[in-house]
Amino acid sequence: MDLLNNLLPLASGYFGASSALYKLGGLIITYGPAGGAWHINIEDEPRWYRGKTTVVGAGLLEIDVILGRDPEWVKRISTVALDLKPNFIALCGTPISAIIGVDLKGLARSVEKKTGIPVFFIETKGGENYLSGAEKAFLALAKTFLEAPHSKRKKALNILGAIHLDIGKETHLDPLFELLKKAGWEIISSWGMEESLENIKKSTEASLNLVITASGIRIAEYMYENFGIPYIIGVPVGEKGEEDFLKVLYEIGEKGKSSIKFSEKKEKLNKKAVIIGEPIISYGIKKFLKEEIGLKEVSIISVLPLENLFNNKKGCLFSFVNKEKGDVYLGSEEKIAEYLNDPGVDIVIADPLYKRLLKSEKIFVNLPHVAISSRLYWDYPYEFAGKPGSKYFYKQIKK
Fold it and tell me: What is the value of pTM for the model shown?
């Protein structure tokens, strides 16, 4: 964002890394002062209130940074790790490590040598958005633990990009899990919400990957390049969304590819909607609004860069994400406000914080986005996936 008067800043890189790794039983360390991880746990990690924390600060004092007391830091972290016995240690960079040029790779090697625990570093700097941190965390995890499988499982897949900063509570994905099981697909792992490191290690046995947020794109590409696992992109929203999703899965399961084209509702409502949020989820909602409700025009404002979604990539068998005129990436609060207050916009679907930007009355549908509003709306009753998503949007728009 250029200037923030009404919105909170987007979650930064090491917030994304934490979200990607939080439940895997590792120890996530931010290279910063004693309270360096406090703002992650208190502000952007609602799960911290419901279980033990896995994110800690390095506990650096000003004198430690000035004198470069890395050996003492390595000893301190190693002692903690040997006591906790985590599955791995992830060392995340911060503005401090970036400014003073800390050798994160070297520190990771030193801690691993002392503890015998797998250690990897994530080169975040604090100034990038959460997508960058989550992508780097997934790749570091993959490079540390993934190996070529002894065999492949037919009709078995991984869900990639299920980070809480985009998804919210895990229950929001229940309709997707049920749909996949209904179609006869086995879910090996869910990257971002997975609790079992063993399931992550078995990911390479999958015959397909499903990317549900932008944070899953790079790891999907990595797994295709290194293990030959193709992938599809999309989140089904609504009854027709589920039907189309099942058709794609069936064709891929039977033919290894899909070329299905979908039709929109013939009767058009002369209304325009704008969706703000994570782009892949937003495109699922857009498809629902146009094909089931029959809205004439639906535009997306993505809070994350869109370029990576639309390149023709090897390994992508099908994508429900299709950019149209009016879909934009905006990082400026002023420009977003200008876009939303266009007289032609009738419906806004976005995090409740965006209500502050509206200057006239419009239909506003709450779609909390943790990366924007932190834990403020964590318990808000909303849905977006599958048939529960369609019921929610129908009800809100009718209001």
Answer: 0.91
